[in-house]
Every structure is written in structure tokens, then in C-alpha cells.
Amino acid sequence: MTLSDANLPETDIDELFLRYCDGALSAHELARLSELIEDNHTVRSQFLTLCIHAATLPEHQAVMRASTNETAHLQLPKPTNPRNFSSTLWKFAAAACLCLCVTAPLIFIASRGLEPDLLLGDRPALGSLSRSTGLVRIGNVPIDLRTGTPPSLLSGDTVSTIGVDASAELTLLDGTSVLLSSNTEAKFEGPLGRCVTVRHGNLAAAAASLDQTVPLRISTPEANVASQGTRLLLSRADGKTRVGVVEGKVRVTDPTDQMALEMNAGDQAEALSGEVRRIPNLPIPQAVAFRFSPTARSGWQLGKLSFEDLLPGSIGALRTIPKICSDGLLRHTVESENCWTTGMFSIHPDTWVSVRYRIKEAGWFEMIVVARSHDIRHRPGVVFAAPPDILNCQPGVWRTVHYRLADFKVVESPEVPSPLVGFVLGLNSGARDVGLSVDQVWINRGEAPAPFPE
Amino acid sequence: MGLLPEAFVQVLLQERARLLAIAVAITGDAHAAEDVFQQVVAAALQAKAAFREREHVLAWALRATRHRALNAARDRRFTPLPAHVLDLLEGAFGDPAGPPVTDHAAALPHCLENLSESARRLVRFRYEEGLSAAAISTRTGRSTDGIYHSLARIHRTLRACVELQLSRFHQSISEEIGR
After folding, report:
1. Which of A290, A425, B32, B165 has a beta carbon 3.0–4.6 Å from A336's, enabling a disulfide?
2. Is B103 in the A-facing interface, judged by CB distances under 8 Å?
3. Neighbours of A406 (CB within 10 A)
4. Mean pLDDT of the A264-284 span
5. Average pLDDT over every residue of A148-165
6. pLDDT(B151) > 90
């Protein structure tokens, strides 16, 4: 395509816009596009519309795909190429399983006899919220278990845990236990609630075994997970779903290509759109260390790389960035990636957390470690906050602090199961930006804190 | 007295599509645009005392979005349109009589549902995963030019659909008023 013709067809402007966004226009083409936008009102209007599309399509697409996944199990697969007989056979089997997923719970309920009080309005009750910490909502209604009877969970209900200290444990009618950890949103459907759609966050499930045809189905935009009498962990964030199997067998299916992965106890898998792959199953370490460089964020997901005024030997630091959290509050944050399924480090009575940091302005910040139980039969979702003396910091000076994790304050948790696994580390200075940077974070076990492992 | 934080955050959220669109025009990337929006909200919360009126918030937010988007473009080594063209676009986005950004964005989901499965797959690659045409070409085994053609056709279809939706909506409003 050339830009010599000022009366470009509509589609060519679209293509130019797409190439512009990809940075694929030459200097001459960019200049010509600029001229067209400047001189031609129609082109300008079309360009504006394209910007609106590009700005809002990611959100619309994600929402639409999530709702498609919610109903995917009700749809039969499309006809396939008859030459690919094995694929057709597999899809036929999948269709049969999906139909059974829908009908078998009805048969199960009919055989047990559904009590009248299990039907509230036109939505069947699926179970109840048995335990919670922090802010939990069912639909838009905040739930406080201290001030009333446990609320029923109805088909179609969305349960949200808002904040790192929030968790909700739900018991379904068939005995399946589902635990939602911090900042999680999940929708429960199906007559027994055995079809769960996770929009984001962390989930642990111990699926009751009904029979071989009624799996617990957990859907995310990237994966459909079917499990039967198993215990599993699942996390969903940033277009990525991770699954870890603790006990039993799990099938993970990519919703796009219908490629399936069979997983056994101890297996870990990651699903990105269009791909499901195994990830290494490594033992959870007792010690970890993170440092930052121009090319390595060490897996930390939130924070901006910074290279100013570093100490000798340091080649990068991570500086806080503003983030509007799920509770609606602004926090200036650096945060590790979420290791819910794999675990980041195991927690023991002699575990030490060390951090080297600097602030630019006097002020406070907090460090938190979010942990779960190693055995997911016990409730996870413990948040540890650093002791208050971390506030005693001097602006402009790099400082190293060491804390025994046992001295951290436990936030919003009536009980602390043991052993524990840390899965998120984070530091934040709340709404105020105090210019917090960290260049080394490390965890070790022992009588005393160890130096940073070089 | 300045606006309460709830009031100006509400303005920013109402105008989110408009601000994201101007950021896309400068960064070429929807995900970078979302980061810019987050920065603008954070900066607005810090500068809250300065806001007196809703129009003031919007004008400030458009300008702040532009500056931050230019920074983001620089970080991404992306060459944006020249400043005088961005002035034109910013003016058009900020003009109350300009394109009905919010209506347009609201009509889009319905039109997206009407796309074919293969078209939606391309939209997902491009806008949900943020892939370039070259990356989609690698993923799908089709030529890069072919991907550009297909995406351009999808945009034309969406645009026609949105315009139809909006004209029907305006027609129904006129009929309602006529009664």
C-alpha cells in the first residue's frame, strides 16, 4: 500500500492505523498519515474512532471471553474435519462429558431429593460461606459472618475477596470445599456449584468425588480445568492461569484449541492464551534472594526499574509505582509475582526476611508477606506485616533491615496454620509516594540473618 | 473549595474511554494506555486541591494523559504523531461536540459479539494479548499483510455496526420525544 493517494479507501486508513500502532510506518509514511489527519476531517474522525476501539477492545474482549467460557460447557463442539478422526472422537467424548456435567448433578439431586429451602427464588442454593476474613462480598453485598448466620451461595453468585487480607471459604452441597484467597473474584454456577469461573485471584479446591462423570469444572479465560476427587491450587492474573495439583488427577484444557494436558499430583502447569504447558515442579525453597538489574526484574511484577544513586555493586533497584488496589485505595507499591501454586519460600520459626531499601522523603511504608498453608486442607490466607520499627528510616540513605518472620504481625487471621508457604512479598507506602526503592530482598533460615547471597 | 476526591475520580472514570483513546493515539498500545490512565488517576489524587470544577478536571486529565503517554511512548521507543497533529486529536477528544466516545465504547461489546469466531480470535490476539501483526502472523502461520488486511476489515465491520447501533438509538430517542 502506498500513501500517494489522498482519497485512500476506508480500509487503508484502518491498516495505516494498525501499522502505526505496531511502529511499522516509515518516517515518510508517518508524515503522510499526519498530513491526512490534519487535512482530511473524515480521516481524522476515523482515526479517533480507531483509537476508541483500540482503547476499549481489550476490556470488552476479556469480559466477553470470560462470559463465553462460563457457558462453553453447555455448547456442543463444532463439526470437525472428518479426516481428523481422533480429534472428532476426542471432541465427541468431550461433548458427552460436558452434557453429563450438566445433567448428572440434576440426577444426583433428584436421587437425593432436593429440600424446598435449597431453592431461593428461581436460583438454587449451592452451599454456603463457612469462613471469611477481611472484606468479602457476595454480589455487591458485603458479608460479615460475625453478625449473622452464614449466607447461602446461590447459583450465579459472584464471590469477591477484596484486599490481601481477605479470604473466603465456601462449602458446596456435595462437600466440595473452595477457598478464595486475597483479591479473588469467582462465580459459582451449575446445580451443585461445580462450575466455577475465576476472573482473577487465587483459589484452592478440595473437590468431593461424586462419580467419574461429574467433575469440578473451573474456568478462566485461558483454561478449563476439570478435576474429580482432587485437591488443587489455581491462580489467574495478567492473562495467565497457573494450576498446581496437590492430590489426584486434573485435566487442563485450552479453550481456544481444545488441547488437553493431563496432570497428576505434584504437577504444575501454566496456560496462556492458545497454549497450555507444564512448568517445572521444584521443591519449595527455604531461602530465596532477589536483586534487580537493567535486564532482570527477578519475577517482580509491580515496580519500576531505577538506576539512580545506587550503592557500589548494585546494578538496579525497583521503585514503587502507584496502583489503585481492589479496595479502591491508592498505594505506591513494589510487589513480587504471585507464586500461589508453586510457593515462593517455606516459612519456619527461624525464617528471616531481609531488605535493602531507600526512601527519598521521610514517611512510613509497610512490608507484607502473604502466605498460605502448605496443606490446603487447612485454611490459607495469612498476611504478615513487618514490625513498626521499619518506620525509623532516614531519607536518601540505603539501609538494610532484617526481621524474623515470627516477629511480624499477623493481619486479620484468627489462626495460623503450619507449615506455611509464602507466595507474595510486597512493600508499599500507601497513598503517599515517599520514593521507596529496594535493590535486594532475601529470605533465609538460621539463628541469625545471613548476608545477601552473592 | 475544591472538588472532593470522590467527585474528580468519578469524572476520570466517566471519561476513562476518552483518556485511554488519547493515550492509544500517542503510545499505539492499549496496555500502555491503561498504565498511563492509572498514573493520571494517581496524580489527580495528589493534585486534588487544585480542582474546582468538573471541566477543570477533564482539561487537566487530557493534558496529563498526553504528557504521560509521551513518556510511555519514549520508554517504548515508539515514534508518535507530531505535536501539532496530537493537538488536533486532543482538541477533538476534549470537544463536547466531538465524537461520542462513551456512547461509542458502550455500543462496541454488542458489535464484538456479532463477529465470527475467527475474527474474535484475531481481536483477542491483537487487543487482549497485545500482539503485533507480525507476532500474530507467527502464531497463526498467516502472512503479516494478511493479518493487517483482516484486522482492518474487522475494524470497518465494527465501525459500521457501532454507527448503526448509535443511529438506531438516536432514532428511538427522537421518536420518544416526538410522542
Report:
1. A425
2. no
3. 12
4. 86
5. 82
6. yes
Mean pLDDT in chain A? 78
Percent of chain A residues past pLDDT 90, beyond the cut: 20
* Separation between Cα atoms, residue A435 and residue A361, nearest integer Å: 7
Q: Can you tell me which residue has the cell 473474584? A: A185
Q: What does R_g of chain A's alpha carbons equal in angstroms?
A: 25
Cβ within 8 Å, pair A14-B156: yes
Put simply, whether B17 touches A (Cβ < 8 Å) is yes
Which residues in chain A are contacts of B75 at CB distance < 8 A? none
What SS3 class is residue A201? Answer: strand
The ipTM is 0.90
Render pLDDT for B40-57 as a digit per residue (tens, 0 to 9): 887 877 765 567 777 778
How far is A20 from chain B, CA to nearest CA, in Å? 7
Residue type, A101: C
- What's CA A75's distance to the chain center, in Å? 26
At a CB cut-off of 8 Å and minimum separation 6, what does A12 contact? A1, B152
Closest chain A residue by Cα to residue B139: A274
In this complex, is the C-beta atom of B21 within 8 Å of any C-beta atom belonging to chain A? yes
Q: Which of residues 58-97 of B touch A (CB under 8 A)?
A: 77-79, 81-82, 84-85, 88-89, 92-93
Give the containing element (helix H, strand E) for B54. helix B54-75
Q: What is the Cα A414 distance to its own chain's centre? A: 25
Most A CBs within 10 A among B6, B85, B87, hence the mutation to make, goes to B85
Q: How far is A57 from chain B (nearest CA, A)?
A: 6
- B36: which residues sit within 8 A by CB, 6+ positions away? B19, B23, B27, B65, B68, B69, B72
The pTM of the full predicted model, rounded to 2 decimals, is: 0.53
The secondary structure of A328-368, three-state, reads: CCEEEEEEECCCCCCCCEEECCCEEEEEEEECCCCCCCEEE
First and final C-alpha spacing in chain A: 55
Residues near A418 by beta carbon (within 8 Å), at least 6 away in sequence: A373
Instruction: Report helix, strand or coil for A419.
Output: coil
CB pairs under 8 A between A and B: 158
CB contact under 8 A, B30 and A58: yes
Instruction: Answer yes or no: do B17 and A23 touch at CB < 8 A.
Output: no
> Among the ranges A108-112, A128-132, A335-339, A417-421, which has the highest mean pLDDT value?
A335-339
Each residue of A23-68: pLDDT tens digit? 888 888 888 889 889 888 888 888 988 998 898 888 777 666 655 5
Q: A361-377 burial string, b = 16+ CB within 10 Å, else e?
A: eebebbbbbbbbbbebe
Cβ under 8 Å to A: B residues 129-158: 129-130, 132-134, 139, 148-149, 151-153, 155-156, 158
